[in-house]
Amino acid sequence: QDAEVVRTRDPERLAECDVVVDVGGEYDPERHRYDHHQRSFALSMHSLQPSKPWTTKLSSAGLVYHHFGTQILANLLGQPEDGPVVTALYDKLYENFVEEIDAVDNGVAQTDGEPRYALTTHLSARVGRLNPRWNDPEQDTEVG
Prior knowledge:
The chain is mainly alpha-helical. The protein contains 5 helices and 5 strands, in the order αβββαααββα. The protein has helices at residues 11-16, 45-48, 60-77, 84-105, 123-128, and strands spanning 20-21, 27-28, 33-34, 111-112, 114-115. β4 and β5 (114-115) form a beta hairpin. The two termini are 22 Å apart. This is MYG1 protein.
C-alpha cells in the first residue's frame, strides 16, 4: 500500500528493491524477483501448476499472478484462497485477461489455425503508449 514504485534497469537500484518485476534478468520468487527475460525461461501456468491447462509462456505479469493471484482475490472477496469462488475466478481471470498479456509480451501469435488465447483488452497497446518512442530524444521513463 505504501510502496514506492521505481522504474529503472540500474542493477544497483534494483538490488535495493524489495520486489522487482519485469527487469533484472532473474526469476527467484523467494527473493521477489519476477522477470521472464532469460533465454532459458520457459515456464507456463501448466508447468508451475500441472492442474492448470494453459501452456502459454508466462510473462512477468503471469508470474506475479501465479504467485499472488489467489491471495489477492481472496482478500478482495473475503473468501478462502482454496475456496471454489476464488479458484473459479482465478482461472477465468487468467484465461480471459492475464494469458493475453503473457502471450503478447512473449510474441506468441494469437492464431495459427485455432486461436491460442483470447484477445480481449488491447492492454499491451495502452501500456506501450506509456513508454517513450524508440526515436524520442527524451528516453527518461520517469518523465510523465
